[in-house]
Design brief:
There is one protein chain. By secondary structure, the protein is α/β, with parallel strands linked by helices. It has 3 domains: 2-213, 3-Layer(aba) Sandwich (Rossmann fold), CATH 3.40.50.970; 223-397, Rossmann fold (3-Layer(aba) Sandwich), CATH 3.40.50; 409-599, Rossmann fold (3-Layer(aba) Sandwich). Helices cover 38% and strands 15% of the residues. It contains 19 helices and 17 strands. The strands form 3 sheets. A 6-stranded mixed sheet has the order 1-16-17-15-14-13, sandwiched between helices. It has a 6-stranded parallel sheet with strand order 3-2-4-5-7-6, sandwiched between helices. Strand 6, helix 6 and strand 7 (186-191) form a beta-alpha-beta unit. Helix 1 (28-39) runs parallel beside helix 6 and helix 9 packs parallel to helix 11. It starts with a strand and ends with a strand. The model is unreliable at 1-12 and 316-321 (pLDDT under 50).
């Protein structure tokens, strides 16, 4: 095992030597920069390129590298993933800037993740110049007509304006569209020739305080549908509520708790989400068969209701549970507003009886009001109270079993997922932590104690591997500004794909704790190969070939130190993890980026 202290890095403030002498925009890119500031972008996650050198200059030498401040990333995926997670963790506008066609190609998977995750990221892309007189040879290779077509199927909107004022208007509109529910990424191509053109006179910057430039108020559900949903929930003998993307909105927890307690429902988190207090006596997350036993299910902002009710084959059975054939499903989401013919996001048509097309928070308020009105007219109080006691007893038994499993697997080597998660949580529990990234396939429920929404920043949305490192940086930047302690749990494959994101964290002085859940395998795929081999009656012992990273084992701690982080590992002895975490946390408290490489069991 080797350790190292954090090395020095460039100043985080990146202060320009000089700034502009005049407050008046001289070039089109100055006006574009003014628009970015007017919108309220605090940061711009960038990977540099000549196609937006005009805007780059304006951000640094005209705006003084403030509002937005450039956050340099070593890969376009990192740029967009950082912006995506920053939006989730902060609730503020998120901006990524990519270079030309090739940069957009690199960042396209990350844009898809943001689209699937319904996160409001405005992506700007340098392009052109469209004027042949201004083009170099390389500009022909790196430009397209039109550039936005590359990602059009998985952005809410794209544009390629042809004037300076048009670009400013397009960016303002992109921000509005991104932040109108269901939220999602937008893309605006900004011609390099226009950026560098000198303005002949004053240019109108969009007034971002004007109602016409602000997102519309979130929509409410159809009143008749609300009444139908409330009727089902009040009359239910065994109602279940699940929470999904509402996890990014802190106000959702109070509403979910209120509703679950009102109707004495069991609560189950959607597979990747955290909306509800872990210790709440009606939280049954991790218990098998809860959804299957439900007569009524309310799915709140679920990315795919079919996963919740297990409407797919048993081979791809979801973690949440299987829905019984008699389960009556209420879907509260805006998913149908996000449908694209190109992608199959959201799965097949869900078996819903009542569909509430509405903002989930607004819809929850409507349902609670309707439920309260009904409960005031009925005499079902004793039955509801009896059911509440029954669920609380089941929750207590579930929590006890979860703790028993932790004790049973305490000394496993490699570390069990249960002890791995417990040690990390125990090390940070007294701090205002934010879990910026975590896996879900091997996540042991009931060990990490959440109080509700806003603590777990979630996963990629689209399942694209390589999300974690960039997301860790973006969410940790938000955590730094909020005075919170960021913790990331990354898979080794995720880390290997985009480990260079660490450089950005070190450079920007973003203190964070990164713990690598290292099973030296692309284990999900190793499982697939095992399954196929068994189905075909072939040697499952060969499943490791082409799926594991054990010969040689990558030295992830050395890799992290190469980017300027403090790092330690591999931690192989379960009894060493607690002390290693203490050392890492001490470094983070001092402002460092700390990385621990920990050998773990896949399950």
């Amino acid at each position: 095992m080797t350790t190292s202290r954090k090395t020095s890095a460039a100043p985080a403030i990146d202060a320009p030597v000089k700034t502009r002498a005049s407050n008046r925009p001289e070039y089109a890119s100055d006006a574009i920069a003014d628009t970015l500031r007017a919108i309220g972008f605090k940061y711009a996650f960038v990977n540099p390129g000549s196609s937006y050198r005009g805007l780059h200059d304006s951000m640094i030498n005209y705006l003084g590298n403030r509002d937005p401040q450039a956050v340099l990333c070593a890969h376009e995926d990192v740029c967009v993933h950082a912006a995506q997670a920053y939006a989730k963790a902060s609730g503020l506008p998120a901006l990524a800037i990519l270079h030309d066609l090739v940069g957009l190609m690199h960042g396209s998977m990350a844009i898809y993740n943001a689209f699937a995750d319904q996160q409001p990221v405005v992506v700007l892309g340098g392009s052109g110049p469209s004027d042949p007189k201004l083009r170099r040879g390389i500009d022909y290779e790196h430009s397209a007509n039109t550039q936005g077509e590359l990602v059009r199927p998985w952005v809410k909107w794209d544009d390629e304006a042809t004037t300076a004022e048009g670009i400013c208007d397009s960016i303002a509109r992109a921000w509005k569209i991104s932040n109108t529910g269901p939220k999602g990424p937008t893309y605006v191509s900004i011609d390099s020739g226009i950026q560098e053109s000198r303005l002949s006179g004053p240019i109108a910057i969009p007034d971002m305080k004007a109602p016409s430039n602000r997102p519309a108020p979130p929509p409410a559900a159809n009143p008749d549908a609300v009444e139908a949903a409330a009727d089902l929930l009040v009359k239910a003998r065994n109602p279940v509520v699940t929470g999904g993307r509402a996890m990014y909105r802190r106000e959702s927890t109070k509403l979910l708790v209120e509703l679950v307690e009102l109707i004495a429902a069991s609560y189950v988190e959607d597979r990747n989400c955290t909306c509800f207090p872990t210790a709440h006596p009606q939280n049954m997350t991790g218990e098998k068969g809860v959804v299957e036993a439900a007569d009524v299910l309310l799915a709140v902002d679920s990315p795919d209701v079919n996963v919740v009710v297990d409407a797919y084959s048993s081979r791809v059975r979801g973690e949440t549970g299987s829905g019984g054939k008699g389960t009556r499903v209420i879907d509260l989401s805006q998913n149908d507003y996000a449908i694209r013919s190109w992608t199959r996001l959201g799965g097949k048509v869900a078996p819903t009886e009542v569909q509430l097309l509405a903002d989930p928070v607004v819809g929850l308020r409507q349902i609670i009001e309707a439920v309260r009105a009904r409960l005031g007219r009925t005499r079902g109080g004793s039955a509801i109270e009896a059911r509440r006691r029954k669920i609380a007893k089941a929750h207590e038994a579930l929590a006890q079993r979860q703790q028993e499993t932790l004790k049973k697997r305490w000394s496993d080597a490699p570390l069990s997922p249960h002890r791995f998660v417990y040690e990390i949580y125990n090390a940070v529990r007294s701090r205002p932590w934010m879990l910026t990234v975590r896996g879900h396939r091997a996540w042991p429920h009931g060990i990490w104690q959440f109080s509700g929404a806003g603590e777990n920043i979630g996963v990629s949305g689209g399942g694209g591997v390589g999300y974690g490192p960039g997301a860790m940086v973006g969410a940790s930047l938000a955590a730094r500004d909020q005075g919170r302690f960021p913790v990331a749990i990354l898979g080794d494959g995720d880390f290997l794909m985009q480990s260079q994101a660490l450089w950005t964290a070190v450079h920007m002085r973003i203190p964070l704790l990164c713990v690598i859940n290292n099973n030296t395998s692309w284990y999900n795929d190793e499982q697939h190969q095992t399954e196929v081999a068994r189905m075909r009656k072939r040697p499952a012992e060969n499943a490791w070939i082409g799926t594991t990273t054990r010969d040689p084992e990558a030295d992830l701690a050395t890799l992290a130190r190469g980017y300027g982080a403090w790092a330690e590992g591999p931690v192989k002895d379960p009894d060493d993890l607690g002390s290693a975490l203490k050392r890492a946390i001490k470094e983070v408290d001092g402002g460092a980026v700390a990385v621990l490489d920990v050998r773990t069991a896949p399950r």
